[in-house]
Write a structure and sequence with these properties.
Blueprint: E1 4-10, H1 15-25, E2 31-37, H2 54-63, E3 74-80, H3 84-93, E4 96-102, H4 109-122, E5 126-131, E6 149-153, H5 169-179, E7 184-188, H6 196-202, E8 206-209, H7 211-214, H8 219-231
Parallel strand pairs: 1-2, 1-8, 2-3, 3-4, 4-5, 5-6, 6-7, 7-8
Helix pairs in contact: 2-3, 3-4
């Protein structure tokens, strides 16, 4: 099982902020996690949903202008948006190689299949779904065969770093791993040194890490420490 630690670029307000954060993370991590929010699925509004930002994304996608450092880092995008098909296609075109939309925003397996096809055509290598902490895992059943990956939220409130970790996630990881062992599982929200080992033991192998990295004196050393902790579990 390959372990991934992905420093989280949480809902940047604009493109320059996205670039600054990504450039800082790329100094020590080959994989980055980008959260974007439309202000509807969550109350937080990020790039590209700010004023006059959508045309910026459209132009980038049309010209195939990729996100910073896309040639040397693997970009994963977690879309907390009500229109995942369209924005996911754009994000794939600008260099996001793993595209994840929320299950709660799809009307059914046919809609997800359409989106997944568009994302892959846009350039994504992997596609999948994210689930809120209160969404029953049984809701994934009709989608599971189409997913390369699943991202389980481990916090009750999305869009900002520092939300409290919800310990219900341990049982959710165990249950999902037992039911669909072939699906690669990621965790996003409140991941830290205190819980990452237990999450890996339960069956998770990808971890979006925000404040546990960014709020330390030496983010690069913290990243390496978390990676070492999880690699001991693999």
């Amino acid at each position: 099982m390959t372990i991934e630690i992905l420093p989280t670029n949480t809902c940047p307000l604009d493109y320059p902020e996205l670039v600054r954060r990504s450039s800082a993370f790329a100094k020590f991590s080959p994989r980055l996690h980008l959260d974007i929010s439309d202000g509807r699925f969550t109350p937080v509004t990020s790039w590209p949903y700010g004023e006059d930002q959508w045309p910026e994304l459209e132009k980038m996608a049309e010209r195939r202008e990729v996100l910073p450092l896309s040639k040397i880092v693997f970009n994963e995008v977690h879309m907390m948006v009500q229109d995942p098909l369209r924005v996911g296609t754009f994000m794939a075109r600008i260099g996001c190689r793993r595209v994840l939309g929320h299950l709660e925003t799809f009307s059914g397996a046919a809609a997800a299949k359409e989106a997944f096809s568009a994302w892959r055509a846009g350039g994504a290598d992997e596609v999948g779904l994210a689930l809120l902490i209160d969404t029953p895992l049984s809701a994934l059943d009709e989608y599971a065969s189409q997913c390369d990956a699943v991202l389980l939220m481990s916090i009750p409130t999305l869009g900002k770093q520092g939300a409290p970790f919800d310990e219900r996630i341990y049982e959710r990881v165990k249950e999902l791993h037992a039911k669909y062992p072939e699906i690669v599982m990621g965790i996003d929200g409140g991941v830290s040194e205190e819980n990452i080992g237990k999450l890996a033991d339960a069956g998770a192998s990808r971890f979006g890490v925000g404040s546990a990295i960014t709020k330390t004196p030496d983010p690069a050393s913290t990243y390496e420490h978390l990676l070492h902790m999880t690699n001991q579990k693999s």
